[in-house]
Amino acid sequence: MSDPEDSPRSEPVIEPPLLTEKASPTAPPAPSRKKGKKSPGASAVPPPPASPAPPEENLSTSSLYLNRELTWLEFNRRVLHEARDERTPLLERIKFLSIVSSNLDEFFMKRIGGLKQQLGAGIRSLTVDGRTPRQQIEECHVVVRDIEEQMRALLPKLLGLLKAKGISILSYADLTAKEKKQLRDYYSRNIFPLITPQSIDPAHPFPFVSNLSLNLLVTLRYARDTEVSLARVKAPMGAGIQRFLRVGKEDRFVAIEDVICQNLDMLFPGMRVLSSAFFRVTRNSNTEKNEEQADDLLAMIESELQERKFAPIVRLEVMKGMDTAHRGMLAAELDLNETADVFEVDGMMAMRDLMQVATLDYPELRDPPHAPIDHPLLQSPRNVFHIIRDAGAILLHHPYESFSTSVERFLQEAGEDPKVLAIKMTLYRTARESRIIDCLINAAQNGKQVAVAVELKARFDEAANIVIAGRMEEAGIHVTYGVVGLKTHCKVILVVRRDFNGLRRYVHIGTGNYHAVTARIYTDLGLLTCDDGIGKDATELFNYLTTGYTPKRKYEKMLPAPKFLKKALLAGIAREIRLHSPKNPGLIRFKMNALEDADIVRALYEASRAGVKVDLVVRDTCRLRPGIPGISENVRVVSVVGRFLEHSRIYYFRNGGKEIFLIGSADAMKRNLEARVEVVVPVENRKLRDDIRILFDVHLSERRSAWDMQPDGTYLQRMPAEGEDPRGSHEILISLAEKRQKKVARLKKRKARGVGGRNLR
């Protein structure tokens, strides 16, 4: 049973003034700067021009705002640094290289694709940082080419280190005659039947090239003929066929495209191969339609997925040495600018596939194993609802604490508890084979009322969500698709249970998806609570999600977007400015994936000018420039890149000593605050607040995985001095979780001994 003083208070933490506070005039802050080691290649991002402090009314000047796309690419430089850093275990370095490659693919599909759409529509309006769509594309291309050059320079070094450990990616030419024969036989049986070569000539239209596929352009002619012809061969990856084919029983591999290239005689018997070169295309993934005009949302999403397959191409990658005429032909056929949109690759194409190598079973080449602990309060076999009711609230921190024994257990017991009457849930992303879905289906079969708001438009998970939605509907679950025009991005579970004193609502609010796989590699927070105010608010939220009706909805504690959250954050910043004084200094701490909303950035500049200290832990995109004289000297921006992907969202205000802690699903991005259904809730329990405070302190003080943003948008990595803790945030937090586990085990042991003694007496 928790101390009553630590239990959630009945009155809202977010008082009405937070929603109505207006910004007040500010004063210049005191200077604050840090030094560290500069990020490799950081100079490739064109820094905005340094300028003297503008007057207060000019906080909207473009030079104060960094570009969204360029700052996201800068994040990938930090990820790439983990691949370059010799302190990182070898297979983890390969993993980070793969992640950067995958991230750049997605960047072209989403961000460059969107910019090209703007360009095609004739949009010339400037971003808040003063760039047109064309300028952004051009600058991004420069940075991407630089990053890829660094990746190509790094890969041979990593492959050399792998070879020394018994892991080799070989050229087909390096194999012995016996190995070549064995591989050719394997290819003939398992791969060759799947390949369909396609001619490219006046009688055959240029073939369709699928997104991110690896293709071979082959130049051929008959032995006694002078006429040259072209053919396209697609590497048949997927359906159990991997990029790297094993040679023998050891961890020696040859890339599938190399095998295809060296056995073209099987595809083109009797013909002479004059040349061959690989190419790859990236298509625009932005194919969204107007759902307000759709009669059937599900059918519309399925149509979008089909259209995405045939979407315009935004990037062509070609193998170095490809014939210039062939390169030009490909660019013309694919409707691309040869100078701007063609990227020459000297070495391995699509390094994202290196994840196959990164997952090999070599424990000594990976991070030390980490097994999430069970939350101390949830190690009890008692009914989970009794545990939550006694505690008032439980704060979960994944992946340090187990997702399966907390969130999945919560849903499982809800489905089996005879006193549970209804379960309502939002679902943005989850695994295809998900225990979450199994629990919901089991609950419906047990007679519970189960309703799930599924977001069909979760980027790149649309197809999976359609399948999941269909499976749940077949099980009798009431499935809705959220509010027209808004993505449902919030992470909420509401369980209605008949307790001893009437109906009680139990709620889970999370910062991350209900996805067991990502819960092991993403850092996220979750709140399990039976707070009456949050329960009532959750009911209102689900009524909104299932009807779309907005009039007169009131929330006591929950701050949903798009209606309330942005207003509350701006009011909270303004309130911090008003309450700030030398005797009672203001403090704002935000942790998020991205800080992009210009209004929030402007408000934080105002807070800094007033002397309020602002600590920002931002994983990737950040428009705000810290350390500008007279503007942001009281602001520091820290990015943490390490073993796990930082994903939790936290908003903190000192609030004149009456501290406000908020967690939820929303980043400080315009799309999250104005075009999505998000949920942020207060954490009121004193002990849980202290846990969040420790999290901030670890991120802001560690010397391994933290990077400090400089005024020009580049980052300096912190380096531990002699005698300082060399561990990064994730290692420190793993250690703290393990210490808590040991403490619980000791207490259980002492308790057991005490009981034993009494029995003897």
What does this molecule look like?
The protein folds into 3 domains: 30-51 and 560-742, Endonuclease Chain A (Endonuclease, Chain A, 2-Layer Sandwich); 170-365, 2-Layer Sandwich (polyphosphate kinase like), CATH 3.30.1840.10; 376-557, 2-Layer Sandwich (Endonuclease, Chain A). Helix 2 packs antiparallel against helix 3 (90-120) and helix 17 (565-579) packs parallel to helix 18. It is built from 21 helices and 28 strands. The two termini are 28 Å apart. The strands form 4 sheets. Strands 1, 15, 19, 20, 21, 22, 24, 25, 26, 27 and 28 form an 11-stranded mixed sheet that branches. The chain is α/β, with parallel strands linked by helices and 761 residues long. It is globular and about 90 Å long. Residues 1-18, 20-54, 291-295 and 756-761 have low confidence and may be disordered.
Task: Please name the CATH topology of the largest domain.
Answer: Endonuclease, Chain A
Helix tally equals 21
Mean pLDDT: 88
* Major sheet: 11 strands, mixed
> What is the percentage of strand-forming residues?
15-25%
* Number of structural domains: 3
Instruction: Count every beta strand, where a strand is a DSSP E run of 2 or more residues.
Output: 28
First-to-last CA distance: 28 Å
Low-confidence stretches: 1-18, 20-54, 291-295, 756-761
CATH classification class of the largest domain:
Alpha Beta
Level-2 CATH architecture of the largest domain = 2-Layer Sandwich
**CATH homologous superfamily of the largest domain?**
Endonuclease Chain A
